[in-house]
């Protein structure tokens, strides 16, 4: 009986330790993600995307939705694949607003142009300083959405090395002109 109690105790300690360490980085001084603005997100649905935006960014969201549909058409043709569900795309008006997102658990630095989650396949990104840069980043992130969807459908998991994942996204979003 004592052995069973000891094993149960060790199992509980292991679970608590693993679960507790997951969010420990948020507890360091100056490392908390603070939300300054309460965003009132609206949804713009297109054929392949559910674009989340807030009212002050409606014009940008409409432009981004056209960019996204154009990227979808290109990528589905090049990759020979269609996404299984409508793709969520969450847009922020600026880098500081993007850094406040609660969609991504970790802290987002200034150099991150966008994030595509592998599990829920949500794209989260701010508008870049120019439309051309926003378009390129959007193409890069939509490529990741295709990669994650293809891996889930055909292999059950995502096992590609990082250099292949990022390399393909960069190549498809920039083309051969990038040195």
* Main pleated-sheet profile: 5 strands, mixed
Unreliable residue stretches:
5-30
Strand order of the largest sheet: 1-2-3-5-4
Inertia-based shape = globular
> If you average the pLDDT, what whole number results?
77
Distance between the termini: 67 Å
Query: Could you give the count of β-strands?
Result: 5
Sheet-strand content, in percent, reads 5-15%
Helix share, percent: 40-55%
List the keywords.
179 residues, alpha/beta, five-stranded mixed beta sheet, 5 helices, 12% strand
What does this structure look like?
There is one protein chain. With 179 residues, this protein is an alpha/beta fold. 47% of the residues lie in helices and 12% in strands. It contains five helices and five strands, in the order αββαβαββαα. It has helices spanning 2-21, 58-79, 95-99, 131-154, 162-174; strands at residues 42-45, 49-53, 87-92, 115-116, 123-126. It has a five-stranded mixed β-sheet. Helix 2 (58-79) packs across helix 4 and helix 4 crosses helix 5. It is globular and about 40 Å long. The model is unreliable at 5-30 (pLDDT under 50).
What's the quick description here?
The protein is of the alpha/beta class and 179 residues long. It is 47% helix and 12% strand.
Write the layout of secondary structure elements.
Elements: H1 2-21, E1 42-45, E2 49-53, H2 58-79, E3 87-92, H3 95-99, E4 115-116, E5 123-126, H4 131-154, H5 162-174
Helix pairs in contact: 2-4, 4-5
